[in-house]
Amino acid sequence: MMLTGETLTISGMRQLLGQEAVTVCPKSMARVQNGRQAVERLVEQGKTVYGITTGFGKFSDVRISKEHVERLQHHLLRSHACGVGEPFSEAVSRAMLILRVNTLLKGVSGVRPALIERLVELVNRRIHPVVPQQGSLGASGDLAPLSHMALPLLGEGEVWYRGSRMPAAAALQQEGLQPLTLEAKEGLALINGTQAMTAMGVVAYIEAEQLADQADWIAAMTLEGLRGIVDAFREEIHVARGYQEQIETAARIRRLLQGSGLVTKQGELRVQDAYSLRCIPQVHGAARQVLGYVKEKLEIEMNAATDNPLLFQDGAVVLSGGNFHGQPIAFAMDFLKLGMAELANISERRIERLVNPQLNDLPPFLSPEPGLQSGAMILQYVAASLVSENKTLAHPASVDSIPSSANQEDHVSMGTIAARHAYSIISNVRRVLAIELICAMQAAEHRGVHRLAPATHAVYEKGRKIVPSITQDRVFSGDIERMAKWLKETHFEEERQNE
């Protein structure tokens, strides 16, 4: 896929995070070359320009002589590589590299084409930097994470390569690549930006979008297990409110339940269902509104110039600004946290309705021998614990700020924390949905699997290959994790179409 600096999408990132290789647009590289020539003129003329001939942050008033400009860039990367904690996944690390290439291709950062070409080499040879997750304030860019991302260019730091974690120098040697020597502005151009929070956000969004689809399918099977009322999903109700995402969710539930012998009509067994069943379109649809907002902001940021300073008019104008500030993504990630947490909240309530004998006519806790065997009793406990944890993680990171760099950088976004917490919530949501699916399949067996709708029956058949029927108590931890792993690897729309 060709990167231009202007046209990268979530769909494109999904492909690039797989096996697709990166190429770069020649016209974009011509812009890069023009920007580089401008930086070289500034150095040669000895002009005072932030980050090129001065120090960084509070050191912006320290003049750097021409002979030390290159050393300045190397010192920058090494001193700022202060990340701690567990590393980001390889997918997030790869996304950071891709996003950094894309933003540099805008031609306003002043780097050499050779630097971009080396970043592309890392992507295409799948040399992925090991980047600790913690340590970014989300303004002045993701300085610590991106410094770790950039270290392998110098032959320093660690990488994942061919399934192993190793020193970057060893991976470069195996690929016949020599470490680069950074020149003026390049260290700053590599680390001043929002690519860590955006990379984490993109990976989180892709998984969240898949979970939103799966939540509809799983909820449809739960409706069958509880003999839910389909009238609540009639088009007239949802058109009367007007939210497109709600209308589409209701239509999807109707489609999934076509041919079901288990769902009921209004007044057949009861007049109306509990909110966790009746309000699926309203809640799931609202979560999709959140996803729409998040996608829009991510796709803007993926193609944004977030460096500082930026060069315009072929370098004739060099402007210091604050595009590195992560507030737009911080807000988007906090919003994503809320939307996804609610998918788990309503799912847990449906689980309760599947296992609580006071709320249904199924065997208590779906137990094969109620009393002697506990069945799915503690599965609901686990779901309740996960949704409670999500409520803590959903506290907005973006409302916090701590001044840094001797108060020069006195307001920060905490956007990377928001993105990391969003991903943690998404992982919890997947486990809650896995529990709901396990319980819904068990309820379907009690009702009669042959009465399921064709679409949900297809998911049931696949799901039973992952988690067998509960015929006696067992250690359910492995069942939950296997089902969650399957959900992460499976697209239910594809499952339905392949039947």
TrEMBL record:
- Quote the Gene3D superfamilies the UniProt record gives: Fumarase/aspartase (Central domain), Fumarase/aspartase (N-terminal domain)
Pathway recorded for this protein: Amino-acid degradation; L-histidine degradation into L-glutamate; N-formimidoyl-L-glutamate from L-histidine: step 1/3
Q: Which residues carry this modification: 2,3-didehydroalanine (Ser)?
A: S140
Q: Which domain of life is it from?
A: Bacteria
Location within or outside the cell: Cytoplasm
One MF term from GO for this chain? histidine ammonia-lyase activity
Q: Could you say which EC number(s) this protein's record lists?
A: 4.3.1.3
Where is the secretion signal located?
none
- InterPro entries linked to this entry: Aromatic_Lyase, Fumarase/histidase_N, HutH, L-Aspartase-like, Phe/His_NH3-lyase_AS
Locate the cross-link: 5-imidazolinone (Ala-Gly): A139-G141
Q: Which UniProt keywords apply?
A: Cytoplasm, Histidine metabolism, Lyase
Please state which protein family the record places this protein in. Belongs to the PAL/histidase family.
Any one cellular-component term (Gene Ontology): cytoplasm
Keyword Lyase assigned: yes
Gene that this sequence comes from: hutH
PTM per Swiss-Prot/TrEMBL: Contains an active site 4-methylidene-imidazol-5-one (MIO), which is formed autocatalytically by cyclization and dehydration of residues Ala-Ser-Gly.
Q: Provide the catalytic activity annotation.
A: L-histidine = trans-urocanate + NH4(+)
Which PROSITE patterns does this entry report, sorted A to Z? PAL_HISTIDASE
Q: What is this protein called?
A: Histidine ammonia-lyase
Q: Note the coiled coil stretches, chain numbering.
A: none
